[in-house]
Design brief:
Helix 2 crosses helix 3. The longest helix has 17 residues. The chain has four helices and ten strands. The protein has two domains: about 70 residues, Winged helix-like DNA-binding domain superfamily/Winged helix DNA-binding domain (Arc Repressor Mutant, subunit A); about 90 residues, Ribbon (Umud Fragment, subunit A). The protein is elongated, with a radius of gyration of 23 Å. It is of the alpha+beta class. It has a six-stranded antiparallel beta sheet with strand order 5-6-10-7-8-9, with no helix packed on it. A two-stranded antiparallel ribbon has the order 1-2.
């Protein structure tokens, strides 16, 4: 099984570079397998483990489990250090972790710095669940004067306003109706 982990890792890296899996004939060269039967056996094990499946035209395709990443059983302290373990529990996909309603969820890239005090920086991807209703305190993508903005929803004198999380920006007080596009439910940042 340890070889299968390295084979899976090589297939995942290949997929990340090419957005497709290699053909059966290319897998042998990629993984260092010398015979067609060893490639077929490895593919069969990957299918049985739930990492790969065959499409109707008999090509290999990744399953949802293929994209899952190991989730360590312990935590990493953000305070004082403590002994580490590298035990692995389950695997998690980011979709499972961040996205409850896939058909209603979009990723939006952030431009600007009006939300930096909320830890949202330019270039971040915010996970937004599309819905027209939001509550005070939610970070929302709102439509104001036919333009999208990411701000914290707040109440002022009984009316909704959009507050930035950067003192260098003013509160947005829409004169007309405020339209909510969606509510931020997560964030992804490439470091």
């Amino acid at each position: 099984m340890s070889n299968d982990r390295s084979y899976l890792g090589a297939l995942q890296d290949y997929y990340a570079r090419h957005r497709a899996l290699p053909s059966y004939s290319s897998i042998g060269g990629l993984l260092g397998l010398r015979s067609k039967s060893s490639v077929a056996a490895m593919v069969a094990r990957m299918k049985l483990a739930g990492y790969l499946e065959s499409t109707p035209d008999r090509r290999l395709a990744p399953t949802k489990r293929f994209f899952a990443r190991p989730l360590a059983t312990g935590f990493v302290r953000a305070g004082l250090p403590e002994p580490a373990t590298d035990d692995e529990a389950d695997a998690v996909t980011l979709d499972d972790y961040l996205i409850e309603r896939p058909s209603q969820t979009v990723l939006v890239r952030v431009k600007g710095d009006s939300m930096i005090d909320a830890g949202i920086f330019e270039g971040d991807l915010v996970v937004v669940e599309k819905r027209a209703a939001a509550q005070k305190g939610d970070i929302v993508v709102a439509i104001v004067d036919n333009q999208f903005t990411l701000k914290r929803l707040d109440l002022e004198n009984g009316r909704f306003v959009l507050k930035p999380e950067n003192k260098g920006y003013p509160v947005i007080r829409p004169e007309d109706a405020l339209e909510i596009f969606g509510v931020m439910v997560g964030l992804a940042r490439k470091i």
